[in-house]
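Cross-posted from the bioinformatics board.
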Amino acid sequence: QSALTQPASLSGSPGQSIAISCTGTSSDVGGYNYVSWYQQHPGKAPKLMIYDVTKRPSGVSDRFSGSKSGNTASLTISGLQAEDEAYYYCSSYTSSSTLVFGGGTKLTVL
Amino acid sequence: QVQLVESGGGVVQPGRSLRLSCAATGFTFSSYGMHWVRQAPGKGLEWVAVIWYDGSNRYYADSVKGRFAISRDDSKNTLYLQMNSLRAEDTAVYHCARDIGTSNQYILDHWGQGTLVTVSS
């Protein structure tokens, strides 16, 4: 149950687009279309942003989108805004019927 | 509205036990799978355990297997985590979360604020 691999940090300017990668194996990310993304502001509970690789829950801005290629999933945030500054975590269902998270990415909006 | 409120955290000595509770309101608790996810101070999210909506299946992270047990009481709309043989590395904020997916989608759409467990002598 090794954690999925995410960049520790990323930054972007307001209005720019950024992509956060999430790399796993064929036993998790690559084997199932069950990747989710969560946003967490300091001191707050995580918030679901993307599920089933590409689907957005009601109420989540369409500036957030997800994709997957092979063992790597990605979260793209377009038109960066100050309130997007947060930690982002990916997760995936695994072949052991467990859930695994990525190590998290700290997004800074310059 | 959906609310999840954890309780039961505190300071406990290594090797001792603790039981966490998660009170659920605002939805039909018995229709949803539930998870425990923890976050050590200054660290990322770590999945702990899941129990399916009907209690038929329970799965655990390797780090807690054999020491922790997840359960639910649908009559009380409450999720539990029994933690035995606690170690210093179990120190974390423990969140409960609702799963809106089917059996293996594991989509956590609502989270509680968490309860802090500190394992220290």
